[in-house]
Write a structure and sequence with these properties.
The chain is mainly alpha-helical and 118 residues long. Helix content is 92%, strand content 0%. It is rod-shaped, with a radius of gyration of 50 Å.
């Protein structure tokens, strides 16, 4: 009977050692699971941040496109203003030439002496 007791005791000790190993493995698995969950949370936060950055970049791209359109419209307005200024200067020059021609004509028609007739 002592053999049976010894075997039973050895089996109990082996079972206890196996249980302790299983408990250690479970704790290690829990730690790995917790680490994996933490890494998943970090990855999700990074993904969310990347999406916010992508949205901000898209908004910036749209704003840049709007600014480009505004600059193009301003360029067209500037060209139109320069053209209008050139036309106004051309008109002023024509008026000045007309006035100068009229003065010259009046000088030619004006008698040089009171009795002179031209």
């Amino acid at each position: 009977m002592s053999d049976d007791k010894t075997r039973s005791e050895q089996s109990r000790v082996k079972a206890e050692v196996g249980r302790e190993h299983a408990e250690d493995d479970r704790e290690e698995a829990d730690l790995e699971r917790d680490t994996a969950e933490d890494q998943r949370k970090v990855a999700e936060a990074l993904r969310k941040e990347a999406e916010e950055f992508r949205a901000a970049a898209e908004d910036a791209r749209r704003a840049a496109e709007d600014a480009r359109h505004a600059a193009e419209e301003a360029r067209h307005a500037t060209v139109a203003a320069v053209a209008a200024t050139a036309e106004a200067l051309r008109t002023n020059l024509a008026q000045m030439q007309f006035i100068e021609d009229a003065r010259n004509t009046l000088r030619q028609l004006k008698p040089t002496k009171p009795g002179d007739v031209q």
